[in-house]
């Protein structure tokens, strides 16, 4: 059908759109907005109006076919509903933008932005916009006084109104063309003595499946009346089923057809008994025409009395629904196809010309054949249009039919729309919008290729909604939708263009600079054509854009403003041969789920200089011929995820590479670490992973990291699994051979299983090294980090066999010690027992972080008089703070986290009867904390019940999270007037997070 058919289903899809509006209005954040901005009552009015309109939609959908005024009413309703959806989506975008811009990504700093509610208050004008939408809806409700739309609530009665006229077994074979082969096949399936039915089954079910108007019923009639079929079966029965599946009604219809007379029985059991008596040990044929019900249990109940028939009995089912055919059929489904052009013309000529005499009107033949071509092999359309033109010999009348929209066709004798509409109305509400939107023909052969792209477009339009709390991905839900559509109907899908979708194929002009400013609500944008070489910066104004496809365009680079498209889910750049740059900050697009640079075509993008894939978490493969991109200068893959994506072979041929953020060492030819040899321009970050694959030390030497002077951040990573199979001693030699340039600023080594570290690590020549991180390494001695004169941060984690950090850690005595070390971290080191040699006069450390080191003694910490910050976390058995912390006279900040048994902030050696119940004490300093402490943070310490009173007047910041006893004492009980709240009233910044529960009393 044409665009008018698409218009019909688009208007009817409003019920699904209304459901989304209801769902959004019920979201907590929208309710919160309504309360904060005083529009709660207006939002309730809007919801009430939407409910009233929704009740009118069913009647409007039915009447729009014949009444233009109803179509116009639905069109206006659609526009208002879309405007309402736009407002809600803008709110969601502003909330998302605030979250993204408020939080820094990695180490990049961001400017402060107004919070979500402040921005709404100043810019959004929420109340007036909701009121305007509601008033526009109210006007439509008022217009109904003239349209007289009825309130119809969905139920069995509604479905009965949509049923087509019943069918029978009689057929005029003289007006049937092109079904000889189909008839022969069905007759063979009905009369064959070879049975594929199970031993427990007497009969086989033969399904015929195809779209509405294709001739399934006609084919069944032809087979039913075939002389071989008539002779083969003792009893034949024809029952029209349609949508209204009523077990008693259908069972009674079968009984009356079998018995050949009307039945007065109303009891199901009695009716079924009559069927069993009539069919017992007889070979029968039952035709169930136009079946919709997919429920296997319903069909088992209906067919139960038929099991008494003789072997060889058959049930012939016609259906539009592929699931019905697969559920019921015991033999492969016969999928009915459209008629050939020749057969269509024969049918049309029979219907349109009196006595089939087309030769008498040669001027009409050409027009008639064009009309037939529009029918796409659909017999119903051919018969309908031929019938409308019968006896008419005026060329003008024939051309009017050829050029007409389906709405303009005469109502009398027009069966096309009702036939197609029935398929649409049978769809669940969540599929109707998807069906209305579809822009390509879906068939079994193109399901995967075209279907996946269609699903991404549905996602962009918001048609696919998550299923409650399930973790199922939207793409998977979309595939279920598509499977449902295909199985329910093999019919044509036509594109519906609206302000939500803009598709310019092979566009030859320039994109106007203000185009995207005017079309701000586009969700899906597709532009193609060699003449499109650039996009205006205004593309960044498409705040709701989810899907951007620039395939086959002449685009050279993406505007920087594309990195503001925070809702973007899909970016496709297939065959963009002139593309030379993708903005580095594309990684800001946290909603981006799918990026396709066409691995089949990217090898031909010889001018490509920058390829950024930092946040493509589902990326599993890079093109094998990536080495063809001879001008590639930047290949960025996220260093911070354990990606399995391997660098393709021969990456070393791309000698102009400056950015290669990750290199996974492989065992294949062209994948060794020696591929790095000629990449002399590499700069900034480099992560070399899977170093366990290096079995030849010479390959590591050939990497020549020492000569790569512009690499400042280096990660060397081994996998930690299957350690026992590694060759002994090889890792020590490999790490020694991978000595980097002394310009290095940051070094991370992970998964290294050598016994000792190479001598270059800790050599004083690395005077630029400011950060070192060792993780998951099996070493017993640490390098002499004290020789690194610029070291600021040292991070040690998961060093499983390290028991002691001693003086060898700081050097051989020729160096006086560290420069002012900003931070020292020890994490997840279960065997670490001792820290020694931390005397403050030669080891001025600013901050120490200790986590999950259960055997560690804190005795040496008392000498760190220069320490200003200390964090202790994940000590499950610690009941009190370590002794001697009061000697840390420079300590300003203390954080204690995840210590579930910690009960006190007092020195464990002091008397237990210090507190008089109000936090008062006779001792001048009963706590083990220094008097100068200014910031105290306690998180997940549920047994701490009070704070040292002598600290409360000096603290400048107090942060408490999930410490219910403290919440009880200083907040909950304070409401009773006992004065505990005043104990902390002197602290300028107080933040309590977590809830007090009565059971904690």
TrEMBL record:
<dbReference type="InterPro" id="IPR041118">
    <property type="entry name" value="Rx_N"/>
</dbReference>
<keyword id="KW-0611">Plant defense</keyword>
<feature type="domain" description="Disease resistance R13L4/SHOC-2-like LRR">
    <location>
        <begin position="492"/>
        <end position="596"/>
    </location>
</feature>
<dbReference type="GO" id="GO:0051707">
    <property type="term" value="P:response to other organism"/>
</dbReference>
<dbReference type="GO" id="GO:0006952">
    <property type="term" value="P:defense response"/>
</dbReference>
<dbReference type="InterPro" id="IPR058922">
    <property type="entry name" value="WHD_DRP"/>
</dbReference>
<dbReference type="InterPro" id="IPR038005">
    <property type="entry name" value="RX-like_CC"/>
</dbReference>
<dbReference type="Pfam" id="PF00931">
    <property type="entry name" value="NB-ARC"/>
</dbReference>
<dbReference type="GO" id="GO:0043531">
    <property type="term" value="F:ADP binding"/>
</dbReference>
<dbReference type="Pfam" id="PF23598">
    <property type="entry name" value="LRR_14"/>
</dbReference>
<dbReference type="Pfam" id="PF18052">
    <property type="entry name" value="Rx_N"/>
</dbReference>
<feature type="domain" description="Disease resistance N-terminal">
    <location>
        <begin position="13"/>
        <end position="106"/>
    </location>
</feature>
<feature type="domain" description="NB-ARC">
    <location>
        <begin position="199"/>
        <end position="354"/>
    </location>
</feature>
<keyword id="KW-0067">ATP-binding</keyword>
<dbReference type="Pfam" id="PF23559">
    <property type="entry name" value="WHD_DRP"/>
</dbReference>
<feature type="domain" description="R13L1/DRL21-like LRR repeat region">
    <location>
        <begin position="674"/>
        <end position="798"/>
    </location>
</feature>
<keyword id="KW-0547">Nucleotide-binding</keyword>
<dbReference type="InterPro" id="IPR042197">
    <property type="entry name" value="Apaf_helical"/>
</dbReference>
<dbReference type="Pfam" id="PF25019">
    <property type="entry name" value="LRR_R13L1-DRL21"/>
</dbReference>
<dbReference type="InterPro" id="IPR032675">
    <property type="entry name" value="LRR_dom_sf"/>
</dbReference>
<dbReference type="InterPro" id="IPR002182">
    <property type="entry name" value="NB-ARC"/>
</dbReference>
<protein>
    <submittedName>
        <fullName>Putative disease resistance protein RGA1</fullName>
    </submittedName>
</protein>
<feature type="domain" description="Disease resistance protein winged helix">
    <location>
        <begin position="447"/>
        <end position="489"/>
    </location>
</feature>
<dbReference type="InterPro" id="IPR027417">
    <property type="entry name" value="P-loop_NTPase"/>
</dbReference>
<keyword id="KW-0677">Repeat</keyword>
<keyword id="KW-0433">Leucine-rich repeat</keyword>
<dbReference type="InterPro" id="IPR055414">
    <property type="entry name" value="LRR_R13L4/SHOC2-like"/>
</dbReference>
<dbReference type="GO" id="GO:0005524">
    <property type="term" value="F:ATP binding"/>
</dbReference>
<dbReference type="InterPro" id="IPR056789">
    <property type="entry name" value="LRR_R13L1-DRL21"/>
</dbReference>
